[in-house]
Amino acid sequence: MAPLPSSARCVVIGAGIVGNSLVHHLAELGWTDIVQLDKGPLPNPGGSTGHASNFIFPVDHSREFADITLDSVRQYEELGVFTQSGGYEVARTEERMEELRRRMSSAKAWGIPAELVTPEQVAEKVPFLDPSVIIGAAWFPTVGVVDSLRAGTIFRERAVERGALTTVPNVEVTGMEVVDGRIRAVETNQGRIEADTVVVACGVWSPRIARMAGAHIPLTPAVHQMISVGPCEVLAERPGEISYPIVRDMDTFCYERQHGSDMEVGSYAHRPILWDPDDIPSIEQAKLSPTEMPFTEDDFDPQLEQALELMPELLGDERAEIRYAINGLLSLTPDGYPILGETPEVKGLWSAAAVWIKEGPGTARAVAEWMTHGNPEIDLGHSDIARFHPHQRTRAHVRARTSEAFNKTYGIVHPGEQWSSNRNVRLAPMHASQRDLGAVFFETAGWERPHWYESNAGLVEEYGDACMPREHEWDARWWSPVINAEHLRMREAAGLVDLSAFAIFDVVGPRALEAVQRIIVAQADVRVGRVVYTPVLDERGGFRSDLTVMRLAHDRFRVVTGGAHGMADKKWFADRMPEDGGAVVVDLTSSWTTIGLWGPRALDIVSSVTDADLSPSGLGFGSCREIEVGGLHVLASRISYVGEFGWELYTPMEAGAALWARLLEAGTPHGMVPVGIGVYGTTGRLEKGYRAYGTELDTERTLMETGMSRAKWKDQDFLGKDAVLAQAGEPPKTVLCSLTVDDHTSASGRKRYMLGGEPILTRDGGTLTDGHGRHPYVTTAGSAPSLGKHVLMAFLPPDAAVLGNELAVSYMEELYPVTVAAVDATPLFDPGNERIRGLA
Amino acid sequence: MSNVLVCVKRVPDPTGEVVLTPDGMRVDGRFAGYTTSPHEEAAVALAVAVAEASEGTVTVLSVGPPESIEQIRAALAVGGTDGILVEADSDLLGPADVAAAIAEAVQARQAAGTTYDLVLLGNDAADTGDFQVGVRLSYLLDRPVVAGIQTVEVDGDVATLRGEGPEGTEVYEVTLPAVATVLEGGVTPRYPSVMGRMRAKKAEVETRTWSGSPAGSGREALVVPEPPPSQVTVLGEGAAAAPALVAVLRELKVVQR
User: Fold this and answer.
1) pLDDT digits (tens, 9 = 90+) for A75-98
2) What pTM, to 2 d.p., does this model score?
3) B189 touches A: beta carbon within 8 Å
4) A132 within some domain
5) What is the pLDDT of residues A278-293, one digit of tens each?
6) How many domains does chain A contain in total?
7) Which residues, including other chains, have CB under 8 Å from residue A575's CB and lie 6 or more apart?
8) Å from B210 to nearest chain A CA?
9) Residue A648 covered by a domain
């Protein structure tokens, strides 16, 4: 056994699928002197990898997951440890069939082979399945199983062959040495290793290891029950580990997966059983492995009955015994995404945790790229460890959300579905007033944000069909025609929007200009009082964010960005401050609240509560100024995300309720209504062609592809400039377009409304492929009430991105005609922007 | 037709490292989980075989906390007919108390018309290891007892019991009704089938309490002895260790020369 080195360039803690894949990819990218530790023996140190069921269904509603999984499968195939078996998701209910139709949409969008089949077709390939129990299924031919332990061994061997890796098993990490916010060394029961880069790839133990350094990896170990029944005669007749397709019995939240002569039945149906990392037994204390906890039969009994229904002869055979049964521990996170990247608390300490077998190698490659040059090829925005707000790192939050999500593992989850647990955590100062107005709250980053106000329900009658009511329950779930009514009233009179969820931070100091100039694309050296909207790019010209920056003083810039992504943006800025402390980032999110007031009557309204001249000439577009509203101190910023004249009004958090009340009172006689995020986030911005980070914009998209190129670029250097200049000289590989739906009528005669994620096809259903090899899908879908149209955004191949081009969108396995309405950022509504300029 | 009563105890799974509760009075099953003592798993398998051969029944009895239903159901899943749970706080009971509780249940069943021809117990429990309940029970029931048996055959009202003794296999013929305590090794316990597990879930389990007052075990505390010093000798590392390894293999006669 190798002795423990006293120093390393990089220490990777953990020899499960993630740690093993990671050491390989780091070595591939030129890293040397990597030391990998695990407290268990090789090749199975006792973590979740060792008891994983090891099958891979590539389809997922999330593009990030789908891309990472596809990359993982490619890697497993290259290692020779992937066996393709095919797999079914079977439906027992019509509601599930509808969900499977949605799965078809996602599969088409991500380029994954899939088709809907009849129960009899399933029974042809799975003769021991009773077709009378199901009404249909989705067939995924590229489903397969992997040998994740073998894969790990090969990965380690490859890194060793390169002379890059020393793996030391049976050594336990006991502490972390952090000096001035940087990792310095890892302490173990066999001594200390100095390293300035350390990766926590410890699966269910990750929170405990990170805590040793004062960092948070907010995941929880959770039980996934699995039994193995055998020997089953029909399975034993065929050679090898797997020769029948895997069956996911979606409505019972169970799967049946052949493993040699046994049938494994796994469940996500039982009550959530969460563990604390500190309570996981040691290797010595555990009966099997530390992550194979004692089986609790009672929790599994209902699933046994359902599995028996589906495969009565196979599982009902008295000679087949339940010879292995575990409460296997796996990692769950509060939002379902992995936890990847450098911890915001400790420089040089990285997390690669909450990653399942199907994502392991792909995730490891992306994290290795991130560690090497900062820019993973696949966008990891949803998985970035920096995404968590402080309250999201609390144990109570993690436990609440993972408990709520566990039974949704195979559940039917609506794209607009809201969490019900751990709500009312961050309340805007005007929350009481909103409640009185019948606000229907959605959550963003812990903030309760009105999505619409029931007090506006009367407007629906007033505007009638212009509210574009939706007939189908699914399309109308987590939605209300009140949103569209609020939209119309805002365009007609004015709307008041609570924007408290903004993340706000200042960049301050003598070198603030220099620091901001380097980070943002727009010119930062503007006069005090200017507001610039700007993309933030990575070195390859991919979007890291888009946000606004207000220059408040020669040495102070205020950055305002979306709440959901605010913490990651803050880290992006903080990581790029000068080392001499000449500029620093100060988080003011909890200090300021923001109220948006927009619409043709906005000036009349605001003029009734302030003497300040906020007319179009008094405060020009893209300007901000401190004003007095009665006794309140307000920073007014003239910008708009909804395409109307008006301002974002910033006031200290404690004054927010008062400002809200005054504006509400002043606005009502002018027809103003409070307007929810349904308008601000979707209908208003869609009509204006505004892109949103996380849907249209991510690190895989460029300024050229999103129609956000500029006529000229600032002279100063900025992140991504070289890439941008190179991209500007070439035709884009894909083009972000706005499309309108021409006819909503389904085969049943009911009108259907897309919600996002659907594939865009040729008018007759043919596949489109852009220059990246991607197939177009809807990034955002929503009503454009002022146009009377349902609008979709999608990246199209350049030759399809032609105004008036007639295409189709596939929704629930039916085609609907659509037409390309914009091939760049030109707004569909008020293309001359006369309203924003106050001319309308 | 033979009616067999088999007695099982809920114990922390004994196959991992033994961890004691903070007060040192019990083995902690938090990590390993709870199971049936291995000797009793063998007793269940024997009981099922005897009952099947004679178209008889197997009643599974446990004295312990409500969770002991899991151990009863586990035995029902591999062929038991019905169950009796004598609810009690195991920590308060000594072996004499457990024997009395079982005897009371046996007598109650007898009064109701069911006589157990054979009562099987484990030789000793995996956690407390008192080695007493079977013998005390036979005394209370006024029946013969054979300890440490590994196989059972019943022919009419005579049971043939075999066990490994110090001088070789010991064979006893006992007239029923009788009591026997079982050592693992003579039979391979089965895992349950799915159908067995479903039957177990539906099988009838009578819950009762014991009318006596416990005398207790007199246990002061449990102590986990230090593990014995390692017997491992490192012969060397790498190629240099080969001659020493060969020498050992020769000594063990694994290789001839």
Assistant:
1) 999 999 999 999 999 999 999 999
2) 0.93
3) no
4) no
5) 999 888 888 889 999 9
6) 3
7) none
8) 26
9) yes
